[in-house]
Design a protein that fits this description.
Blueprint: H1 5-8, H2 65-81, H3 111-161, H4 170-181, H5 192-200, H6 204-207, H7 213-234, H8 237-245, E1 260-262, E2 268-274, E3 294-298, E4 305-306, E5 320-324, E6 327-328, E7 346-350, E8 371-375, H9 384-388, H10 391-396, E9 399-401, E10 408-410, E11 423-425, E12 430-434, E13 444-446, E14 452-454, E15 456-458, E16 466-468, E17 475-477
Helix pairs in contact: 4-5, 4-7, 5-7
């Protein structure tokens, strides 16, 4: 039983059974006429309501003044809309059926519109993903730069407390910072014009200190980078395109550039430039490659041109110099004397039409020259006598190749004094006279093309393996390797 029973019960006054029972007038199934209490007389504004509440059985509380005026205006408006002399029927008409039916979509299927909507959604998703990637990249870049800056600040802080860092100038410190932070992302923007001399001016007492090993390596890398980048910048458009395809100036990791080789310490040890990837002239900055051991330049007959830069004498570690088909002018006479290229062991000068007719006199002072090759460029007067008279070259020279250099005169008899000579190539020249006795160490002899050579040649050693006298008037006796190559008069 509900505990609210007493609140739901009805108390009817005595005689309630005499009141008629009514059904709801709002029900469509109701057929009972409304009670006289809801007759037309109730629309009379002067009609008084029953003082009794049928349900409560208690007198109805008097209405407020506002409710009375509201009812008065409502009744007046209702009576005004009714026909004259006709009382308004208080019965409400039966509600018509709603006739609610389930309706289906009558729109037509449009595949083009659907495809367009799909493309638009796909485009929106792609743009959103791209935006997210860009934001992540920017955030990562900011974090990376912050870490690098903090690392550099820590390094700078440690440098400031290190007495040895006082030897660095403000420009040198700034150049180290720029090479560490900016150059990796933009190699071409690094200010080599100001940083190269600043870093080259760092005293050796700083770079040789083990406590400064990291900064010393950065200085070395920046100096070498600038030296190589100058080669790229000096080249013409075709040369830059060729070098650019080999990563030149595209990254600061110069050891990966085409033609560049480095040792285990990250220092450039070999540089090979081949046309069209050659500079118009050899730049002065090439002297910054102080550890360069081998330089090979094969030009296009007109480039590289000009003279060697003054800084070329700084390449004191060089052991091999190969210049071919260039327009480089005469080599400095003191190039191979101290403090220049005194460690040269191989010197090859081939088809350099602008180099002049003489060799630097300092060649005779080289103590470790093993190979001297000069081809297809005129030499006058003949350097044979000068070479043979050099005690240093007599002791060290193993290969002497002066083919097609327009040599004149006779072959010096003192050539037999060479102690280690294994190859003597003097073909296609204008030599005269007879062929002297050759060194006992000789393995290859090429004298063909000297039509004025005469006399007889007798092998004095069993070491000779290759011999050519074609185009000469020399007769060969007792030298089997030269028989097939001999043209006798």
């Amino acid at each position: 039983m509900s505990k609210f029973r007493e609140h739901l019960s009805l108390t009817l006054p005595p005689g309630h059974l005499s009141l008629p029972v009514e059904q709801s007038k709002f029900s469509p199934a109701s057929t009972i006429d409304p009670s006289p209490r809801y007759s037309a007389s109730m629309w009379n504004p002067l009609h008084q309501l029953s003082p009794k509440d049928i349900e409560a059985g208690s007198p109805q509380s008097s209405s407020s003044l506002r409710d009375r005026f509201t009812k008065l205006f409502f009744d007046a408006r209702t009576l005004h809309n009714a026909a004259p002399g006709q009382a308004r029927d208080s019965r409400l008409s039966q509600w018509p059926p709603l006739n609610v039916e389930k309706r289906r979509c009558t729109c037509h299927h449009d595949p083009h519109r659907e495809a367009k909507m799909k493309r638009r959604k796909r485009r929106s998703r792609c743009l959103l993903i791209l935006l997210i990637i860009i934001l992540l990249f920017l955030i990562g870049n900011v974090i990376y730069l912050n870490v690098r800056v903090l690392s550099l600040m820590n390094t700078s802080s440690s440098l400031s407390t290190n007495p040895t860092t006082q030897e660095l100038s403000a420009d040198a410190l700034q150049c180290i910072s720029q090479y560490t932070l900016n150059a990796p992302s933009s190699p071409s923007s690094y200010p080599c014009s100001t940083c190269l001399p600043a870093l080259q001016g760092v005293p050796s007492s700083f770079t040789s200190n083990a406590a400064n090993a990291q900064d010393a390596q950065t200085i070395s890398n920046a100096v070498q980078f600038c030296g190589l980048r100058a080669v790229y910048e000096t080249a013409d458009s075709q040369g830059q395109a060729t070098l650019g395809n080999g990563s030149w100036s595209q990254t600061i990791n110069f050891c990966t550039w085409t033609g560049v080789a480095c040792d285990n310490s990250g220092r450039v040890s070999s540089l090979a430039l081949t046309y069209p990837g050659v500079p118009a002239t050899l730049p002065n900055e090439i002297g910054a490659l102080s550890d360069l051991q081998t330089l090979t330049v094969v030009g296009g007959n007109t480039v590289p041109a000009g003279s060697l830069p003054d800084s070329f004498v700084n390449l004191t570690a060089m052991t091999t110099l190969h210049l071919e088909s260039t327009a480089i002018t005469a080599l400095p006479d003191t190039l191979f004397s101290s403090p220049g290229l005194t460690n040269i062991s191989t010197l090859a000068l081939l088809r350099n039409s602008k180099m002049g007719i003489s060799l630097p006199s300092s060649i005779t002072k080289l103590t470790g020259l093993h190979s001297l090759l000069v081809n297809s460029q005129a030499l006058s007067p003949s350097p044979l006598s000068t070479i043979v008279d050099s005690s240093m070259l007599v002791a060290s020279l193993q290969t002497l190749d002066l083919t097609s250099t327009s040599l004149t005169g006779t072959i010096p008899t003192s050539i037999t004094s060479f102690k280690n000579l294994t190859q003597l190539l003097l073909g296609s020249n204008n030599l005269t006279g007879t062929v002297p006795t050759m060194p006992s160490t000789l393995k290859e002899l090429q004298l063909g093309g000297n039509s004025a050579l005469t006399g007889a040649f007798a092998c004095s050693s069993n070491t000779l393996q290759t011999c050519s006298f074609a185009g000469t008037n020399v007769s060969v006796a007792g030298c089997g390797v030269c028989q097939n190559a001999t043209t006798s008069s």
